[in-house]
Amino acid sequence: MRCNKWTTGCHNCPEKSSYPASVLFDNSRVNYKMKKEIFTGVKDLTIVTPSKWLANLVKQSYLKEYPVKVINNGIDLEVFKPTQSDFRKKYNLENKFIILGVANVWGRRKGFKYFIELSEKIKNDEAIVMVGLSKKQKESLPKNIIGITKTNNVKELAEIYTAADVFVNPTLEEVMGLTNVEALACGTPVITFDTGGSVECIDKNTGYVVEKGNLDHLIQAIESLKRDVDRAKSSKARARNLFNKNDRFEEYIQLYIAYILS
After folding, report:
1. How far apart are CA 238 and CA 181, in angstroms?
2. How many domains does the structure of the chain reveal?
3. How many CB atoms lie within 10 A of CB 53?
4. How far is CA 60 from CA 7, 9, 177, 210, 218, in A?
5. Are residues 209 and 91 in the same domain?
């Protein structure tokens, strides 16, 4: 639910039931005031955000007087890389175009319903795989969606990313979209809704950005990728150039050094 009260002062919060959840009381006004007093009282503060989108929001908030620097989140490219496996054989997907979705928790914000709607429109040579589902969600899936519950095995996750033909992220709210980057690093192009920082992860050579909630455009993007077999190499290169965790660590170190010397 879109809400801009944070720019002037929170009250009557539309997400009262979300984290931190409150069943009876709306503490958003008090929480906003306390946070504003605490954070704006910090001297010599530099704010680091993982996306330009979030940086722009910071500049609209009560933190706008502080300098803001963008440092992308990084991933371990020794783990997230093209990793061969028997995933396709295991799930009888050897001749299928795999449409993959991954989330830590699937819900409204992550676009769960769009995969359900997409399942009604995919072709016979296409298959949907969703990773990170609860047991209840997995049991309620349409028959043409393969559901996999949450895995803490990153190598297994890299294998699934690699096996997929396209990674679809129909997110409605996203600070950056780390799953996008993990998919790219494994050589899998990405399609995402035009939301938050998710769009910053890809370019015209590594995927498509489609209008939020537009299922027809999402399907068109999938069809375009089916005809384009050259994006895997570009996907790996983008992840390696922009999202290597060691390079991002170095950016933080240089920021600290600059502060100490100033």
Report:
1. 9
2. 2
3. 18
4. 6, 12, 22, 26, 31
5. yes
What is the spatial distance between Cα 207 and Cα 166, in angstroms, rounded to a whole number?
A: 9
Q: At what angle do helices 112-119 and 215-226 cross, to 10 degrees?
A: 70
Average pLDDT over residues 34-55: 93
**Claim to verify: residue 60 and residue 99 sit in the same structural domain:** no
What is residue 96's three-state secondary structure?
coil
- CA–CA separation, 216 vs 26, rounded Å? 39
How do beta strands 47-49 and 126-133 pair? unpaired
Average pLDDT for 211-226: 95
Interhelix angle 178-185/154-163, rounded to 10 degrees, is: 70
Asked if pLDDT for residue 230 goes beyond 70, the answer is no
Omega before residue 20 within 30° of 0, cis: yes
pLDDT band at 17 (very low <50, low <70, confident <90, very high): confident
Distance CA 153, CA 131 (A): 12
pLDDT at 128: 98
* In-domain check, residue 251: no
Reduced to 3 states (helix: H, G, I; strand: E, B; else coil), residue 149 is: strand
Full residue range of the structural domain in which residue 44 is found: 5-70
Q: Are 74 and 182 in contact (CB under 8 A)?
A: no
